[in-house]
TrEMBL record:
GO terms for molecular function: kinase activity. It is a multi-pass membrane protein. This is histidine kinase. Its EC number is 2.7.13.3. The keyword Nucleotide-binding applies. Its main location: membrane. The keyword Cell cycle does not apply. PANTHER family: SENSOR HISTIDINE KINASE YPDA (PTHR34220:SF7). Keywords: ATP-binding, Cell membrane, Kinase, Membrane, Nucleotide-binding, Phosphoprotein, Transferase, Transmembrane, Transmembrane helix, Two-component regulatory system. Residues 500-605 form the Histidine kinase domain. The chain crosses the membrane at residues 24-47, 317-336.
Length: 609
């Protein structure tokens, strides 16, 4: 069965390939499919990225605005918990409550005043620590009642311990977490949040009471309704310890309880979004905002299916348009291919004769179209065949000669290196160690220069510079002083080969060789936020403005136009741009106190630092 199908495909392919018109139809069909498919895929990927970026930007701004409103809301609750100018009177009433009836009335009136000041309070509790007694104001049926009672076990409550340990003397308690209890005797546990504030003595700083506000979710829901929602999206409101205070679906809270991204919220200073895949395999983009002062977090997981919905619709539309375009193109190609291919039959016949060795095969030229142009040039090709054969023979000879020259050029540097090593050995045997060291330095310098690497680490380059300077000091003696300021951690820095030598060589050429006295050269490297900066500074006579302009102009010239004395710096400038892109830079600063050349290599990327 398989052989039969293969035979049918072979026969079909053979029939298609016999006619040029079929090949043209197949060619243009393939091109159209590739172009339309490629453009659709590229546009889909771009739309995906744009959709993610747009969703991130809009959601982040929205969460920031909503979180600011929630921050203001919590700041208002915190402000409400402080007695302000009546702080001393409140503390005095708390300490005298057990024996003074007026103090009891003062505390009750104070709680009523707080309760009536807002409409989002379910209840207020004032726990007197020394008496283990509390006052509570709640709305029971249609009445606002104040009652008092003794209560044990409050100091064992988690929220109480957190408030006592807090440097802000406060704690928040979430009631959407399963098992959360207020610790007080209540008709019904609160549904949203508890805020607890420790009241301390101004003199001794001893805790005297804890005031607790149990809040309704009305204000919170009013604020959070401004967050736009689509199907599958969720919203979480977390405290700095990732305790949830709001979740749009309680079932979703069980899924994210052990999610790894919870612990990573806020790790990145830029608050980059995170990704998460739930148990059902749905992938989410986690966009969040962290409130600057208290660290409260507003988190919105967005399904990627929602983000990519518009991109998928555009992709499908692109496929449909491409299919329509393909059908129209096939009809047009079929109509015009026959008109194009018929004049080519005569040309193909004469070309077959030419391929069989009949070099006098010429075609009658009719018309002035492209086929006539092709026929004329075919005839010209036939007439020049013998000349081309002879020229080709000569080119083969030249090519072989060039290959031999290239092999010879490759052998010469290695021969020179081996010869230098032999001279060094001879000098050592003769006891002339200084000459041996110079020859070794020259040999190693040559070996380093002919190595095939374009980029080396700084450690290798500095060793090469050490050998290069040894040769230069043999020439200039004490007139040349060089200091290297290069941290050990930066010696693994990847830099272009011979780059530091080009900078040092320029200082020697334009500084030391133009002075009768000596100069000092400082080689320095440092790692900045965006670039690795390598500088070579000398205290030579400096570079004149006219000369500086010539050097800067040479950087902007094409390499073929380059001439003069700036070949080394132009070479380094061009290599930096080729290796690292436009972010790399070679700058020169000069004055009467000397010249400083700075090579800046960008950080990041496969070819960068």
């Amino acid at each position: 069965m398989f052989n039969r199908i293969l035979s049918m495909l072979t026969t079909l392919t053979d029939r298609i390939s016999r006619r040029l018109v079929n090949k043209l139809i197949l060619l243009f069909t393939t091109i159209i499919i590739l172009v339309v498919g490629l453009l659709t895929v590229i546009s889909y990927q771009m739309l995906e990225r744009e959709s993610v970026n747009h969703s991130m930007a809009s959601t982040t701004n929205n969460l920031k605005l909503i979180n600011q409103k929630l921050e203001d809301y919590l700041a208002g609750i915190e402000q409400l918990s402080l007695p302000q100018i009546h702080y001393e009177e409140i503390l005095q009433a708390i300490m005298n409550e057990e024996s003074d009836y007026a103090s009891k009335m003062y505390l009750e009136d104070y709680l009523r005043e707080l309760f009536y000041s807002r409409n989002d309070l379910e209840s207020i509790y004032l726990y007197l620590i020394d008496q283990q007694k509390y006052y509570a104001i709640t709305r029971e049926a249609y009445n606002i009642t104040v009652r008092s009672s003794y209560q044990e076990g409050i100091p064992e409550q988690p929220w109480y311990k957190q408030a006592m340990e807090s440097r802000h003397n406060q704690s928040y308690q979430s009631f959407i977490v399963p098992g959360s209890k207020s610790g007080y005797v209540m008709n019904e546990e609160p549904s949203f949040m508890g805020y607890h504030r420790v009241l301390r003595s101004l003199v001794t700083r001893e805790p005297k009471a804890v005031i607790s506000f149990y809040l309704k979710p009305t204000v919170k829901d009013q604020i959070l309704k401004d967050v736009p929602f689509e199907n599958g999206e969720h919203l979480l409101y977390l405290d700095p310890n990732n305790v949830p205070f709001h979740v749009d679906e309680p079932a979703f809270l069980d899924q994210v309880g052990q999610a790894p991204w919870l612990a990573r919220l806020g790790e990145d200073a830029l608050m980059k979004p995170l990704t998460w895949t739930d148990e059902a395999g749905d992938k989410y983009l986690i966009v969040y905002n962290i409130e600057a002062n208290g660290g409260w977090k507003l988190v919105k997981p967005i399904p990627y299916s929602n983000i990519y919905a518009a991109a998928k619709a555009t992709r499908n539309l692109g496929y449909l348009i491409g299919l329509i375009f393909l059908l129209i193109s096939l009809i047009l190609v079929a109509l015009f291919s026959n008109k194009i291919t018929s004049p080519l039959k005569d040309l193909s016949l004469q070309m077959r004769r030419f391929s069989e060795g009949t070099f006098d095969a010429e075609i009658p030229v009719k018309g002035r179209d492209e086929i006539a142009y092709l026929s004329r040039h075919f005839n010209r090709m036939v007439r020049r065949t013998n000349d081309l054969i002879n020229e080709r023979y000569k080119m083969k000879l030249v090519e072989k000669n060039a290959i031999l020259k290239a092999l010879e050029a490759e052998i010469n540097p290695h021969f020179l290196y081996n010869a230098l090593q032999a001279i060094s050995t001879k000098a050592l045997k003769s006891g002339d160690e200084e000459v041996a060291e110079m020859v070794d330095a020259l040999a190693l310098t040559l070996r380093y220069c002919i190595s095939g690497k374009d980029i080396v680490n700084a450690r290798e380059e500095l060793k090469h510079i050490e050998r290069y300077l040894a040769l230069q000091k043999a020439r200039f003696g004490s007139r040349l002083q060089v200091t290297v300021e290069w941290e050990e951690a930066l010696k693994e820095l990847q830099i272009p080969k011979l780059s530091i030598q080009s900078l040092v060589e320029n200082s020697i050429k334009h500084g030391l060789e133009k002075m009768s006295s000596g100069i000092s050269i400082r080689i320095h490297a440092e790692l900045g936020d965006t670039h690795a900066v390598i500088s070579v500074r000398d205290n030579g006579p400096g570079i004149s403005p006219d000369r500086m302009e010539q050097i800067q102009t040479s950087f902007r010239q094409e390499w073929e136009e380059q001439e003069g004395e700036n070949i080394g710096l132009k070479n380094l400038y061009t290599r930096l741009k080729l290796l690292y892109g436009e972010e790399a830079e070679l700058s020169i600063q000069s004055d009467k106190q000397g010249t400083e050349m700075r090579m800046m290599i960008p950080r990041g990327g496969s070819s960068h630092v």
